[in-house]
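Supplementary Methods. Inverse-folding protocol.

Structures were first reduced to a discrete structure-token string of length 384. This string, shown here, constituted the complete conditioning input.
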């Protein structure tokens, strides 16, 4: 093969590689922009339901706790102080070995709204938290169940009222927001962005008629729905999924309501070490493979195209015609992020600077990619 033929071959291979990378990059950019406008933008203009002040459906607040004495000392007074006429507080003590049980016995004797369910053992083959929650739900007196965790605290005294206004219609599941407290660290910023971005996805998908998950830190659904579907039976042995897998199975286009009233928020402190966050995030990611196929396909497309966007962006910079393509795609993606997510950020009142979103998007994408492999094979049995 003469030098001219070699040059032509190299040029052809370079052209093919460039066109391949450019095609993937442009496709990924367009898909990302599509998700931003078709799904995410819906949150910006979302109008929360105006409740009827004369209607107060009875509510059972259900909290599963294990060795949570310190948090319950703070939480119980906040729940008892809720401005709502008809509710009970169901605390499920799941095999605690701290003084939590004695504290809750005292609270039960002092306050008629407090109900205590004690779990002494978990039957073989069942996830401890799901079994404990099932026992607590069965003992709940009211048909409207409102869930949070022992380390979560309502935004104010109208948390129950804000969520309950969604409970007297045909909706059987209410999705709400549960942000983390702001702290001065990059890990905290990344966790809060992850929480925000996850919420953007499940809120916007639900608004588009594709509800697929909720978070147990702030979630409500009807007890008859839980009983009709036999609760967590479909995924009882699995670690995690007591919130998102149940919602994924039980939700439909017309039985889900969304509450974005700021008074409906619950706040908690995030993990403070990278390892703890890794364990928490891989547990959450590990249940995603059990979602409905349509949800897995859409979420996979969103995650895969974001990853491909970054994996093709850098190589394109080394081609003579590549850098304008890369720069143009990056500009369009960032511009649309600013336009769409800045409005969503304001709607959710999440204190994350929109100027940091491009950096956080990249870092978050790389971490989720890294976490997805161990999550795929996670079989841990603990629930805390």
């Amino acid at each position: 093969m003469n030098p001219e033929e070699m040059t032509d071959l190299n040029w052809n291979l370079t052209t093919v590689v460039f066109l391949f990378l450019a095609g993937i990059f442009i496709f990924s950019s367009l898909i990302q922009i599509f998700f931003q406008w078709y799904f995410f933008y819906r949150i910006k203009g979302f109008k929360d339901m105006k409740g009827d002040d004369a209607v107060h459906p009875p509510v059972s607040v259900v909290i599963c706790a294990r060795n949570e004495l310190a948090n319950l000392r703070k939480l119980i007074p906040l729940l008892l102080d809720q401005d709502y006429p008809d509710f009970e507080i169901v605390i499920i003590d799941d095999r605690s070995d701290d003084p939590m049980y004695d504290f809750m016995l005292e609270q039960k004797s002092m306050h008629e709204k407090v109900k205590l369910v004690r779990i002494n053992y978990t039957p073989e083959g069942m996830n401890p938290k799901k079994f404990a929650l099932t026992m607590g739900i069965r003992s709940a007196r009211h048909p409207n169940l409102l869930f949070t965790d022992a380390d979560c605290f309502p935004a104010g005294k109208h948390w129950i009222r804000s969520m309950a206004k969604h409970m007297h219609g045909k909706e059987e599941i209410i999705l709400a927001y549960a942000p983390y407290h702001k702290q001065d660290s990059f890990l905290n910023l990344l966790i809060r962005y992850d929480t925000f971005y996850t919420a953007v996805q499940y809120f916007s998908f639900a608004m588009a008629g594709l509800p697929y998950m909720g978070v147990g830190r702030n979630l409500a659904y009807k007890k008859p729905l839980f009983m009709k579907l036999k609760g967590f039976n479909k995924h009882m042995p699995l670690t995690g999924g007591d919130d998102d897998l149940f919602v994924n199975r039980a939700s439909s286009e017309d039985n889900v309501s969304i509450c974005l009233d700021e008074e409906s928020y619950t706040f908690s402190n995030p993990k403070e070490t990278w390892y703890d966050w890794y364990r928490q995030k891989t547990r959450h990611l590990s249940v995603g493979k059990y979602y409905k196929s349509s949800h897995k396909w859409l979420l996979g497309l969103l995650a895969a195209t974001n990853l491909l966007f970054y994996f093709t962006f850098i190589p394109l910079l080394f081609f003579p015609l590549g850098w304008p393509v890369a720069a143009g795609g990056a500009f369009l993606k960032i511009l649309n992020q600013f336009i769409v997510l800045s409005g969503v950020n304001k709607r959710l009142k999440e204190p994350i600077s929109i100027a940091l979103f491009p950096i956080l998007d990249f870092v978050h994408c790389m971490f989720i990619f890294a976490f997805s492999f161990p999550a795929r094979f996670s079989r841990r049995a603990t629930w805390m």
